[in-house]
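Quick one: examine the sequence and C-alpha cells given here and explain what the C-alpha cells say about the fold. Here goes:
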Amino acid sequence: MEALLSTKGIAICLFFSVLNLTAAIEIPLSVVQLPTITEQPRTQVAYPFDEDFTIKCEARGNPHPTFNWTKDGKPFDLLSDPRIVASNNSGTFVLQNRGIITSFQGKYRCFASNMLGTTMSEEIELIVPSVPKFPKEKIEPLDVEHGDSVILHCNPPKGIPPLHIYWMNIDLQHIPQDERVSMSLKGDLYFANVEENDSRSDYCCFAAFPTLRTIVQKMPMTLKVSRSNFIKERKPKLLIPPESAGSSSSVTVIKGGVLLLECIAEGLPTPHLSWVKLTGNLPRDEPETENFGKILKIEQATAADEGTYQCTASNPMGRAKHEFHVHVEEPPQWIKEPEGGVYSIGTNLVLLCEAIGNPEPTIQWKLNGAPIDSRTFRGRISAREISLTNLQLQDSAVYQCEASNKHGTILATANVNVLNIAPLILTSDGENYATVVGYSAFLHCEIFASPAADIRWTKDESIEPLLTSRYELNKNGTLEIKETKKEDTGSYACWAANSVGKRAITANLDIRDATKLVVTPKNPRVLKSHSVLLKCQSEYDSHLKHSFRLSWRKDGDELPVNSTEDGRIILDKDTLFISSVTLKDQGVYTCVARTSLDSVTAESQLVVLDVPDPPEDLQLSENQNRSVRLSWKAGASHNSPINELIIEFEEDRWEPGRWQELTRAPGNDTTVLLSLAPYMNYQFRVVSVNAVGRSQPSKPSLRYATPPAAPDKNPENIRVEASEPDEMVMKWEPLKPMERNGPGLEYKVSWRQRGVEADWNEETVKKHSLTLRNTPTFVPYEIKVQAVNNLGSGPEPNVTIGYSGEDIPDAAPSDVSVDIVNSTLVKVFWFGIPKDRVRGHLRGYKVNWWKTKSMLDGKRHHPEKQFLTFVGDRNYGMIPGLEAFSEFRLTVLAYNSKGDGPESSPIVFETPEGVPEQPRFLRILNFDKDSVTLSWGLPKKANGHLTGYILQYQMINETHEIGPLNDVSVTNRSTLSWRLSGLSSSTKYKFYVKACTVKGCGKPVTEEGLTMAQGSKGIGKISEAVNPTQKFHPIEALEPGTEYTVRLVTKNWVDNNSIFEDVIETRGRAYAGIYDGISTQGWFIGLMCAIALLTLLLLTICFVRRNKGGKYSVKEKEDLHPDPEAQSIKDEIFGEYSDSDEKPLKGSLQSINGDIKATESADSLVDYGEGEHGMFNEDGSFIGAYSGSKEKGSVESTGSSTATFPLHA
C-alpha cells in the first residue's frame, strides 16, 4: 500500500471528515475485545415429557471467553452431576431428564470471561414442575335444606400456569351456572341458595394444565337438598371477599396486566351484583364484567385504573357492599441505559443508568460481574452515573447496571473497550461496482480504528479533491455519488489514517445506460367484450442483457406468466393480451423491467366502457289525477357519462305486457314529473343511455292508476270513401287506447248536405265508420265526429267536407286535333268536359291511338290500341314513339276515380316520312389488289320511300390514323352491291353504307377489310353476329366454287380463340343454275309466300295475346332520344362482328354521322303522358316500353305539371 501511495504521488488528498466510526460498527473479532453475551434464555421449564433440557449461554470476545455458572447466587459446577453435559468453548449445557431432577430447580447466572474482563447474564430460572394430583380422600356428603348457601371446594393442585377449572358430572356434562350457581376464580363452586334439583352425587372438579398436557379430577362430591319447613328468605351476604376481610380490601395489579375484582354473595332471593368506581379517574368505558356480573375485569391496567371500586349485592331483603382499593404497580423499566463502545487512550468515560418502577427500583453497578467497591474504584460512582477520566488500556472492562424491585429485575451491559490500533479496512481491495445513469453509486470503505481515522477519497490519477455536492461520505466510510453520469466511470481510492498508522484500498466503478420503458397504447378505453393488446417497449444496456427481466402487474399485484381464465389473459414476453374484456379487467397495468442494477416501471390505465347499469329504487310521489313524480337512483355509468334517460310505461288495461316510451330526461336527472292519461293502470321503468348503448331496463315501479275522465280529443283523418254512386261511407281514425280516457267509448257522427240542409243528422256508433245509402251522386257534405264516453263528450269537433259516391264521367272531350311535330311525334289538343259532367274528382285524360295502315305499302293493320294518361285538368299532350310514314286514329277520354268516361270521335292523321334505319348487313366480297366488291342488305325499316344509298370508305391503320373519307352515291334504290376501284394494295379500309329517303340518310353499317398485295390471291372477310342460343346460322352472298374458312369465335375475348374452325368450298355454277331454276318457278314462289303469311299470322296472334296491345320498339325510343352510349352497346352486342369495332377512329364521327340529325323537340316533358311505370332519364330519354290500351290504371301525380309515359316491360 505504501507503493501505491508513492506511485500515485498523492501528497494531500480530499479530507471529508474525522468520524468516530468504531462506535457505529461491530468490533472485528481480529481485534482484542471484551466478552459479549450473544445468546441466553430467561425462564426454562423442565417438562416431564421432554428427554433433556438445554440451557444456553453463548458469548464472543478476543481472546475467546471462558464460562462458569452460579445457582441461587452460589458457584455451580457443571461436572458435579453426570446428567449434565457441558459444551466445549461454550457456556451452554444440557440436563438429561433421568431420575429426580427437582434439585436442579433454581435461578442461574452465566459468566463469560477473558483477560480483559467478565460479563454476566441475566438470571435464568429453571422450573422443574411436579405432576399435579388431587389427594385421594373420602369426601363426606353435604346435607342441606332448601334455600341454604353451599360452597363446594375444589382446591386444585399446584402446577405450571395456565390453570383451567371445570365443574362437570360423571358423564362429563358441565354443571349449569347462572347468578345463583357460579364458580369463583379459585375454582370453588358457590350456591347463593340451593334448590331440590341441585341434589346429585357426582359433582366433579377437573383441573387442566395445558402446558403440562395434564387434566386431573377430584373425587366426586355429593350434595343432598331436603325440603325446608319454612322459607329462608334473607338479605345478601358476601362470601367473596369474606366478612372477615372487613368492608374493604386492598388489591395490587401490575401495569399492563389484567385487573380482576370478584364478589360472590349468598342470599334468598338470589342477589344481583353491580359495580361502581367511587374514587379516581372515571373508567374510559363501561367496565367489563364476567361470571354473571360477579367479576369486574379491566385489561391492560394503567395508573388511571387506580382508585376505589365498590361491588353491591342486593335483593328485596337488603344489600351488602365491599370496597376494593386498587393500586397499580410496575416492574423496573429503563429510562437511560449505559452504552459501551470503543475508546481511545486519554479520552473520558461517562455511563448513565436510570430506571423507573413502582415501587421505585434499586440500582446496583457491577464491574466484570462483581459489585463495584467504591473504595477501590478510581472513578466516580453514584446510583445513576459512573465516570472515568484519562482512560488507559487497562480500563477496558464490562460495566453492568442492575435495577430491581419486588416485581422484577432488569440488567443493562456496557462494554468499555480502550484500544489503540491502526486503521483496519474491512472492505476488500479492488471491488468492482456498477450502476446506471441517474442512480446513486455506493463505494464501500468500512473502517475500524482507534483513535478514529481520517477518511479520504480520490479518483483515477487526479489528486484534486472531490468537492462537489454530488459526493457524500457516509458515517461508515461509504462514498455516495449522486445522480451518476457516464463520466463517473473510473478507479477510486479510499484512504484511512490515524496516529497509529494508515491504510488504502481501490474500487472500480462502471456506469451503464439506464433502462427505459413505455407501454402502448397509453390509457386505452376499450368497449366491454372487445380485446386489447398492451405492448411494453424497452431499451436497456447491452451489458445487462442476461439479467433483464420483464413482468406485468395489475393494480400492484403480480400477474402470472401463464395464461389465466382459460386463456382470456395472455402474457407473452413484452405483450399483454386481454380478450373479451370485462369490467373486472379495468385498472392500472404496470410493466416492470428489472436488471441487476435498476428497476423501472411504465403504466397504462385500462378503462373499460360498457352500457350503464340500470337505475334502481324507483319511487312514486306527488300523485295527481294527470301526473306523478318518478324518482330513481342512477346506476354505474361504466366510464361513459349517461347522456339520456328513457322513461317507459306499461299499462295492463289495453295492452298488458307492452312497454312504450313515455318521455326522455337529461342524463344527470334522477327525477321527472310524468304527464299521464286518465283511466290507465301504469307501471314505469327507466333505461339509461350512454355513448356505448342502452342499459337493461330498471325493475318496474309500483303500479299507479289514474281516474277516468271525458275524452280530450276527437277522431282525426275523417274521410269519405264510396264504391257506389248512391252511397257515402264516412271513416275516421279511431282513438288510441290511451286517448279513450274512460269506459264506454262511442263516436257521435253528425252530417248535412252542404248548402241544402240546415239541420244536422246524427248517429252514435261504436265502430270507426258509418255508411249512408241513397245519397245523390257526388255532392258535398259537412261532417263532424265527436268522441263520447261514460264520463262525457270530447271537445266540439271540426267540420270536414266530404263528397258522396262518384260515377264515371258521362261526356267526352270535344274539338280533338293533332299537330304533327315530326315523323314519330305528334301533339294532341282537346277541349275538356264540363265539371258537372265529371261526376267525381277529375283525375285526368287518356289519349288512345292505333295504327291503321302503312303509307309505304298501303297494307292495313290490325288495330292495336295504345294509350297515354295525362294527369290533371289539361287540354293537350305529346304522343311520342309513332311509326313514320303511317296512318293512325286517335281518341281522347276523361277519367275519375270511378273509371273512364266515353271516348271522343276518332280522328285520322298521318305521320310523314323519316330517315331509314341501318342496313341489315354489310359484307366485303372479292378483294383484289386495288378493288373490292361490297354487298349490303335492305334497312330494317325504310320509314319512307328509299331514294338510294351513300357508300363511304377511308384508309385506316393500326395506329388509328385515318385517311380522307370518300363518298359514292348509289341512286338506284334496288342496287344492293357495288364494286369500288382505285384502292391501294395491301391497305386496310373501313367501309360505310347508309340508306336514304327524301328526309335524309340513316345510320351507317360498317365493315373493315385489307386489299391484296401484288400477285396474291384475293381474300375477303365476312363477319356476322350469332345469337348464343342459335343451333345453326345461314351465310349468304357467297361466290360459287370458292373456298372459305368458317370460324366461330366468342366476341370480346382477349385472344379471340376459335370455338370452331373448318374449310368449306361452295358449289360451282352448274349447281347454282339448278337452284336458280327452281326459285324462278311460280308454284315454288306461291308456296313460299303462303308459308310466310301463315307464319306471320300465327306470330301476330301470339304477340297480341301476350302483350294485350301494341309495344313501342326500343329502336323507336332510341330514335326519339338518341343515346350514343346505349347505341354503341347495342351495336357491340347485336351488330356485325368486326375486329375494329372497339377501336374509335379519330376525326371520323362527324364525317360518318354528318347527315344524320337527331330529331329534337322544343316541347317540355310536361307534354308527355304518364303510365304505370313511366319515367324519364335525366336527359329526357324514356325507360321501358309503352303500355297497350287494355292495361288499366296509371300513376297519378297531383300538384305537379310533369306527366310521364305509361311504360311496361
